[in-house]
């Protein structure tokens, strides 16, 4: 009920992102059901049916990535002060986000099931004159347990991924340290270490001073009270009568002037100006308050006019750049070796895609993985290059933001580049071969699902990065930075990323398509 209320009270942009997840889940569910229908129609071609089902893992992973990105930007899943008192702690919010993701994916899976049953003719008759009989298994009964198992795969995987991504990481851990015992079984430890034989040394327990923090025992109420000053002894006078009293201020002593004439006077500055604030700070860093201000403000206190301190930006590049370059080079090498070997086993891809040796497909997978691993480091390098050679305000701001958001933007950008390179290579191979069959409807649907999910994940990651920089942007605006500078810095970041990743994607696509073009 709480999840439904939060879903109903969300903003339209949040609903739009959840509808994108539902649409992607519908496309992925339809692909899974189509693989099941092909297996029912061709029971003797189990290898081809298994290959079709394995290719559904790519849109499945893309949909899960989109669901995690949408859950990260959901304002209802972010911890806020005061919600823990109502039982909405970090763990409860994580459960609510996982439940929302499961609901969206379940809605898409149910929509895919309705469309699949409609195309099979189970609801209102066979549409399109039975043109989709090959992968719908219209003449066979649909196994309900198998269909429900395939449709339940995506909600379970997406909700689990969201729960792992949004799990609370700052929960207090139980103290597992062993409790020590002091001397002679006393609980705890002594405040200072003692050497061997301290307890048995003669007089150690009689002449040792009081331990700091201990209280002296009070005398009993019915016993004699100790007197501070005995009454039977003579009391010495405080001030003897015959002792000369020194004068408080000798008459011949020179009085120092209150304000020396040759002392430098502090300059007068308008109240509230930066110069007036700087004049309060002395050479040793202490604050000097005027007479009318008995309590100067602390240096660490921030008023409404003072911007919040900027967070520390990471200077070290992400650690995945060397590994990404190594995996990328290994993938290109595997593709070249498998393409040059004539005795390699060829694999026919479904949906009209160009087939080739299995080693080439493994090289494509390694190339895509290397590009994904190297993308955060390349984004960090792009931000560092923007700040080189005497940067201005725009270049400095754009480069620092790219360095700070290298991991958040780099991973989705690497996935987009990998998908774009694979699509470009497949299109180039299909266009170069005049006798190749046209792309099938399921191939087009799978390509649209993967491309839409990857591009949507990149855009949502950009929105998340913009939300994380909201305080910094507000501080820059309060300091007087024009909004055109911020917009031009954003355009400069986009142009720099396109200038770096665009040619890189085309180069990798050409190298990936080269072994199959022979």
Rg over CA atoms: 38 Å
Total number of strands: 2
Query: Span between N and C termini?
Result: 60 Å
Beta strand %: under 5%
Strand order of the largest sheet: 1-2
Average predicted confidence as pLDDT:
75
Order of helix and strand elements from N to C terminus: HHHHHHHHHEEHHHHHH
Largest sheet: 2 strands, antiparallel
Note poorly predicted spans: 180-188, 289-311
Briefly note the structural class of the backbone.
Answer: mainly alpha
What does this 3D model show about the protein?
Helix 9 (321-340) runs antiparallel to helix 10 and helix 11 crosses helix 15. 54% of the residues lie in helices and 1% in strands. It is built from 15 helices and two strands. The relative contact order is 0.09. A two-stranded antiparallel ribbon has the order 1-2.
Could you give a short description of this structure?
This protein is globular. It has 15 helices and two strands. 54% of the residues lie in helices and 1% in strands.
